[in-house]
Amino acid sequence: MIDTHCHLNMITDKNGKIDFIKIEQILKNMYDNRVEIAITIGSNLDDSKIGIQIASKYKNIYCAVGVHPEGVDEFNLDKLESLVKQNINSGKLVAIGEIGLDYYWRKDNKLEQIKIFKQQIELAKKYNLPIIVHCREAFGDCLEILKQYSPFLNGGVIHCYSGSIEWAKEVINLGFLISFTGVVTYSNAKNVQEVAKWVDNDKFMVETDSPFLSPAPFRGKENCPSNVVYVAKFIAELKNISYNNIDKITTKNAKKLFKI
Ligand code: NI
Q1: Which of 15, 70, 77, 203 would you label with 115, given CA atoms 20 to 30 Å apart?
Q2: Tens digits of per-residue pLDDT, 179-204?
Q3: CATH among 3.20.20.140, 3.20.20.70, 3.30.70.1230, 1.10.1040.10 for 2-258
Q4: How many angstroms separate the alpha carbon of residue 86 from the centre of ligand 1?
Q5: How far is the CA of 52 from the centre of ligand 1 (A)?
Q6: How far is CA 87 from CA 37, 47, 74, 240, 250, in A?
Q7: Ligand 1 centroid to 151 CA: how many Å?
């Protein structure tokens, strides 16, 4: 099993330094639950750098670097590109992300969000990396941009999927996967459950987005990569297939996309 999207780079101590002791506990717990690999995702330049540090220290940890729409004001393309350049041959940098649009968070800076989303798509294409897309309440603009930049020869994923089946069809046609978090386990997430039931086995992955979005039994508590097991178990029941099969399917999809 792979947790394809977590934020180990947010595990810091009171002084804002990476808390390696806590990270090692999290990793032990992960391996104990047969989650063998995790990908730690960047949301700004600083935590992208931390992600690289964590991934280079631990064998089964990989990373993505990128700037989330919330980081739009501090975005610096040159600095991000030099980080990519320095690490592209490390074997640990597997994607650009998370990048995208979030109109739930802010609607007043749509043009800036779109601008940095496009710049980072171009960066991913330049370095032959897949993209990890965050899309919240911005489905129209997001799809338009993805169509504009199609084809994506290195693919990508719409993370924490929250859209409709129709929208999923569109992005899957563009070569994207979709990925489910603990949100799928929530009783008020019927639409996400419908998408999970519907999606073909070779088109989806699972993730935690930890420390956020704990699955149902732990909702409200701090999330961790081992909880990806609960996301996978829930989807196994929805799709009426075994946990072992979900494990195999999602691991295969993730390894193919991220080339690990
Ligand atoms: Ni995330």
Answers
A1: 203
A2: 999 999 999 999 999 999 999 999 99
A3: 3.20.20.140
A4: 23
A5: 16
A6: 19, 15, 21, 41, 26
A7: 24
